[in-house]
Amino acid sequence: MGFLARLRGKSGRSKRASQSGASAKNDRSLVDDGSCNTAEVASPSAGDAGERGHAGHAADSAKQHEEVAKTFAPQASASPAGGEAVEKAPQTQLPAELSSEQLNPQEAEALRRVEEKLAENLDDLDAIQEFIDNIYIMKMEFKVKFALREHFAVRLADRALQALDYVDLSEGAPSARVLYLRGKALDSLSSHSSEAEELLTKAVKLDPSIQDAWSCLGNVLWKKRDAKAATECLRTAVKTDGRNADARRQLSKVLRAQCSALRDAGARKEAIEDGLKEAKAALAIDFSDAESWETVGTSYVARFFHVSRSTDDLHNALKAYTKAAALAKVPLPDMYFNKATVHYYLAEFDSAIASLKHAADLDPSLPVSEFWQTTVGLLVKVARSVEGKGGMKRKRLVQMLKSIPPSGKRHDRDFVLLSALQAGHNAGKAIEGKVVAVADGVSSIPVVFVLADKNMDCIAVMLYNVKADKITVGDTLAVLDPEKETIESRLAALESGQSLVFDAIKVKGPSALIVNGARLGDDHFSLPGLAIDTKGA
Predict the structure, then answer these.
(1) Which among 185, 127, 180 has a CA at the least distance from the CA of 156?
(2) Is the pTM of this model over 0.85?
């Protein structure tokens, strides 16, 4: 039987893998905006002060802050204590039910190399920990290279747990470090592991100073969506070691993810801002860490959707994602998926499609196909509807447009015809017309209405963050301070075989809309989603 398939007495052996849940800046932003305590994260801990000194860290910090300030220019850990006795033992083989015969030759060879590296260090607890630390990285590398499923992470965890079998438990109970390593190995799996939770809970009780054990426990608890307990554990990890970038990234993700369930706008803003602060704090620890750049990017996206609604945050997100891509040593498929979401929202459809393709190449399990097809389908439908006036017959359209009032001053705006709009923001103006066609985007973002004005000219009105389920063909729609641009997608045109160029107005929230004479309020505000980015997923 494999190690994950048995529980062997006092040594803390693992249960079945199925029980364990195996399945699946603005400028000077890190210096002056008060969002992170750079002294806390950039100063050396007691463990490394003797090696580098405060002067070296201060110089590094200043240089790193300058880099981030340039990147986000505005638009116009100490190791756990070792020393446990390790008993040398003969090299073991992979259990029969996890034999390499289930793999193709390339996969089997890759796994064999991993096992050989581990087998060379069966008497070295530090090497076992290094192996466990890298399970998630290896899992992503192998997933991309071989499209391997979750069972590969189970294999890696099983091999690490078998290696821990050789640790001498002479005092009759496993040490806190061994419990922590067992729990961390199981935490590398995608789903919540009750056994990992139990092992890590015991580890932090025996030795609360193992900061990474708190981080792993927080991640385990988040997998079962216990946000409060996960946040407490991750904050403890950060308090135990302020230079624990992984804990700060995880804390940022948990804070960001739970805000959707918060009804109070102030609480949502606090969670989002705290999440961005922790992401920046992680970045201040190591400016060459791609995962920290990714976390900062996604935090900016979340701030846009939940708090600011300023496209400056989206542009900062793209800058952070670009840095992450340049620095990445392991695949970041979720980043490319989220990057596609940002480009899509900015109506940069070709860039969105390119990012989707990259995400699909890295992780075929992401819902890229639906996103891609819906994007192309949306552009085709809108282009046709704008050109063909929603497919309406002229007589019916003329009749519909009779009720549209003439141009003039209303709602403190000058209502004008579509032909009077300039490219870009038309402050102080408004347009009004009849809805002649409706098209939904990805997850109904954007909802696109084709609007005809009194002269029967048509334009696409792209609604973001707006619940528009009750707006339909024939309704009168007015847009205040419209922002006009020309939409063109060459990639979608190649995909569809059609020319896809049309004028559009982007509406970023309900307050700019008047429907059948009634102005929409914040109760019509809605939010999109992002790809899941939990560490073990």
Answers:
(1) 185
(2) no
